[in-house]
Amino acid sequence: MTQIVVNGLLTGGVYALVAVGFSLVWGVMNVVNIAHASYIMLGAYISYWLFHLYGWDPFLSIPVSMAALFVLGYLVASVVLNRVIRYGLVMTLVLTFGVDLILQNAALILWSADYRSITPSYAGASLAVGGVMIPYVRFAVFLLALVLVVLFSLFLSKTRTGNAIQATALNPFAAQLTGVRIDRIYALTYAIGAALAAAAGSMISVIYTIQPQVGNVFLTRAFVITVLGGLGSIPGALLGGVLLGLAESFATVTVGIGWSQAVSFGLLVLILVVRPQGLLGRRFFGGVG
Amino acid sequence: MAQVPAAKDALAPGKAHHGTAAPQRQESPLLKVEQLEVAYGEVQVIWGVDMEVYDRQVVALVGSNGAGKSTILKTIAGALKPKAGRLIFAGQDVTGQSAADAVRRGIVLVPEGRQLFAGMTVHENLLMGAYARRDGKRAIREDLDWVYSLFPELVRKRGQLAGTMSGGEQQMCAIGRGLMGRPRLLLLDELSLGLAPVVVDRLVEIVTRIHRERNLAILLVEQDLNVALAMAERGYVLETGRLVRAGTAEELLADETIRTAYLGI
Question: DSSP labels for A2-32?
Answer without folding.
Answer: HHHHHHHHHHHHHHHHHHHHHHHHHHHH---
